[in-house]
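Worked Example 4.2. Read the sequence first, then its structure tokens.
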Amino acid sequence: MKTLTAAEAITSRMSVRAFTKDALSKEAVLKLLNISARAPSGTNTQPWKAYVLEGKALDELCKKVCTAYDDIALNPDLAKEYQSAYDYYPTKWLSPYIDRRRENGWGLYGLLGITKGDKDKMHAQHRKNFEAFGAPVCIFFTIDKELGRGSMLDYGMFLQNMMVAARGEGLDTCPQAAWNDYAKIILPRIGAQENEMLVCGMALGYADKSEIVNTFITPRVSAEDFTTWVK
């Protein structure tokens, strides 16, 4: 396997939405987590905690969350029972953020032949989040509720390390905030304590290159557009 430079690992990282079933060893996962733990954190608080699920444990959790997700589709009022502990997205969308979100969403759906208003296909595609996109491993990350916003910034750097390190090892990931709404199902199942809050899940494995969904590359604004040189 070719060794990737840091730049190559970063720029080749993408959210993979279809994985092969090729298993990962415990040693391979621990190697990534140990690399990731070199992320900086304010006063070295190291706020991350990881729960690794695979095999039967992952299958059972996926079934439970998929059932809840399907139940909500039949009875939208049930959504009130499943809420994330923190706001990942804004309560009010503004331009240019809403424009980028729409570009991303319809770019993906268009590739998959899902048209506006096709609720059944949208539901089926989003449901794949709760199957970890077929990945052999899904890691759930938690944080102590008492920690502040800065620790979430630290956590972001840890998660980025995880994704870039995975690319360096020839692996792929999909960071998933979609799991957060189902924390009431996930946290007891993984053995989290009362003081823990779900940050996100992350599917980990080898990308299935035969799946068209993995040809979708999200666009990025150029540095020239978001950078101001102050004189």
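Now turn to a second chain, presented in exactly the same format:
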Amino acid sequence: MTQLNRSSDFSNSPNVDDIVSAIEEDIVLGRLNPKERLVEEDLIERFDCKRHVVRQALFQLDAIGLVERIKNRGAFVKAYTPKEVEDLYAMRELLETAGAESIPLPAPASMIEELTNIQNEHRDAVEKHDLRRVFRLNIAFHRTLFSATGNAYLVECINDFAQKAHAIRFMAITEAESLEQACAEHFAMIDAIKRQDRELLCTLCREHLIPSKQRYLSIAKFRHN
């Protein structure tokens, strides 16, 4: 069983959202592996909380696609089949391309400034290999980027499918080369927005999705063989 941070991470007794967030990080950062079982008793001890709180957290993780609950067996970190990965990323490409096409150009100076500030912090986290900050700042960058569309329904769909992919992204977010590539691509997106180059922005958003998908599929192929 993977040894994880205990409840001392929280100043107060953790709630459902705290537990979901902590397990989500464990999955994305590779502390929990695909198909690894999440034992309720271990989680109750780790988070120092009641069983119903843990069960609600596992239910929520199942609903967002990070955990799979199997009757009479328990909860396991979601392991996607190659077909599921291809389908999920096809949806992400459709949604995020639509998002890039909907961002107003010229973009407001305040939006460009906010993206730049987030990305400067993201670069600092990458340089320090602070993976927890990298993960959270990456989310902040993309949510800020697509929030500029002004379409709340599109943004919600983009965020939902991006979250489902967290169980796939663990390889890309733990490799230094992949982190540096993602960082460079973020800055390129900002530059494309400044130059009002929508075609380049759409291309960058599509290509940004490829590395994590390819790494997961290569591992799945290796395991299958």
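Notes for the reader: The two ends are 25 Å apart (CA to CA). The CA atoms of residues 20 and 57 lie 6 Å apart.
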